[in-house]
Design a protein that fits this description.
This protein is of the alpha/beta class. The chain has a single domain, classed as NAD(P)-binding Rossmann-like Domain (Rossmann fold, 3-Layer(aba) Sandwich). It has six helices and four strands; from the N terminus they run αβαβαβαααβ. The longest helix is centred in the N-terminal third of the chain and has 22 residues. The protein is globular and about 45 Å long.
C-alpha cells in the first residue's frame, strides 16, 4: 500500500506539485460475524483497508496539500448504529470519522478543512457483488424499508455532498460528519 501511495505522490509532484481537494475513500466490508467469530486476519484486513489506507493516503499527500485545501473522508452511517455482527466494520468507519475531528484541529494553522461523509446504503459494487438480480432486488427492498426516504442511495447522492464539502460554499464547515443516508442514522 505505501509504495503505491509513494508512486501516486511522485506522479502528482511531476504533474502539478499540489493538491487542493483530497477525497479519501477506502472501504471493504468485513464478513458479517459475531464478535466471538472474528479472526485476527479478518480484523487486520478490514482495518488495513478502511483505516490504515485512509490515514496514510492523507499523510503521504499532506505535503502536497495547499493551505486552504479541503479533505473529505468517506466514513459510513453504520458507525452511528449498533449493527449486530458488524463490529469490526463499524469501528473502522468510526475511526475515520474521528480522523475528521482530530485532523481539523491538527491542520487549522494551514486552514485545511477536514470533513467526513457518512453514506447509508448506496448502490455500489460493494452492495451488488455476487448477487443475482433477484437477490439484489430483495436486498435493496430490505434496505429501503429501513431508510426513511424509502430507497437506497446512488453514487451521485454521495458525490454531490463531497462536491459541496470540497467547495467554497462550505468554507465555514470543518470537522463535521455529513450523513448521506436518507435519514437512516437519524430517524
Amino acid at each position: 500500500m505505501l509504495p503505491d501511495l509513494d508512486r501516486l505522490v511522485a506522479t502528482i509532484s511531476q504533474q502539478t506539485n499540489y493538491v487542493d481537494i483530497l477525497f479519501a475513500n477506502a472501504g471493504v466490508l468485513s464478513q458479517s460475524l459475531p464478535i466471538g467469530e472474528v479472526s485476527e486476519n479478518e480484523f487486520d484486513a478490514t482495518f488495513d483497508v478502511n483505516v490504515k489506507a485512509v490515514f496514510f493516503t492523507v499523510q503521504k499527500l499532506l505535503p502536497l496539500l495547499r493551505d486552504g485545501a479541503s479533505i473529505i473522508l468517506n466514513a459510513s452511517a453504520v458507525s452511528a448504529k449498533g449493527l449486530p455482527a458488524y463490529s469490526v466494520y463499524t469501528a473502522t468507519k468510526a475511526a475515520v470519522r474521528s480522523f475528521a475531528r482530530t485532523w481539523s484541529s491538527d491542520l487549522k494553522a494551514r486552514q485545511i478543512r477536514v470533513n467526513a461523509v457518512s453514506p447509508g446504503p448506496i448502490e455500489t459494487p460493494m452492495m451488488t457483488a455476487g448477487k443475482s438480480e433477484e437477490e439484489l432486488r430483495q436486498h435493496k427492498a430490505s434496505l429501503s424499508s429501513v431508510v426513511p426516504v424509502g430507497r437506497v442511495g446512488q453514487p451521485d447522492d454521495v458525490a454531490r455532498a463531497v462536491v459541496f464539502l470540497a467547495s467554497s460554499d462550505s468554507s465555514f464547515i470543518t470537522g463535521i460528519e455529513l450523513f448521506v443516508d436518507g435519514g437512516m442514522a437519524q430517524v
